[in-house]
Design brief:
mainly alpha
């Protein structure tokens, strides 16, 4: 889907200022990519979802009525090429090397921030103190479930380091400066060019 088409279609439905064009296109691209990945996993490769043991044998054309038979035929053919499968396997290998897998849904860090902001507002209404939401807080919330459990021991250890550095900040033993903040110090690695951890991709950070 071309970026111009994405923006034009969005503007026909919603009243969006031009200043939000990049943000809208970024979000739309992420949703579009995730949707294609879902179609590929469930209906092309027929892999079971993590939340259920059985695979999906449903007809995607019945579930998504806007997908025509011809479009679905071309999509399946493209997904079954050697080039695409090689690219998919490479991406899977990169994901396996991810030391700190997140638990976030399609909403990503934006949804996590909204959740924390809601808690902060509720705390203020009840007369409790509500500390500022930090990048490390978002990073942690994106990797724990409702029982505060992580997917692996590496993430548990990273969260402990983040909490330790936060204590150092409170005691005046560490002063965050520029790109070297609590999260960067705790993880011990610099940010990748063009990416910022613990921040919503279109937040402008």
């Amino acid at each position: 889907m071309a970026e111009s088409d994405t923006w034009t279609r969005t503007c026909t439905i919603f009243d969006v200022p031009l200043s939000k064009k990049t943000q809208v296109i970024t979000i739309a691209n992420k949703i579009w990519t995730n949707f294609k990945s879902k179609l590929t996993s469930l209906y092309v490769y027929k892999k079971p979802l993590k939340k259920r043991k059985r695979r999906s044998d449903a007809d995607p054309l019945k579930k998504y009525e806007y997908i025509t038979p011809e479009v679905w035929k071309r999509f399946k053919a493209m997904r079954m090429t050697k080039e695409f499968q090689a690219s998919s396997e490479l991406a899977a290998e990169r994901q396996k090397k991810n030391k700190y897998p997140h638990r976030m849904s399609r909403g990503g860090y934006r949804k996590v921030r909204l959740k924390l902001e809601k808690k902060s507002l509720e705390a203020k209404k009840s007369g409790k103190s509500a500390p500022k939401i930090r990048r490390g807080d978002l990073w942690i919330e994106g990797r724990v479930n409702k029982n505060r459990e992580c997917l692996n021991s590496e993430t548990d250890a990273a969260i402990e380091r983040i909490n330790l550095v936060n204590e150092q900040v409170a005691k005046g033993e560490f002063l965050p400066s520029g790109k070297v903040d609590v999260l960067t110090k705790a993880l011990g690695t610099d940010e990748h060019y063009g990416r910022v951890r613990g921040v919503w991709g279109s937040s402008g950070a």
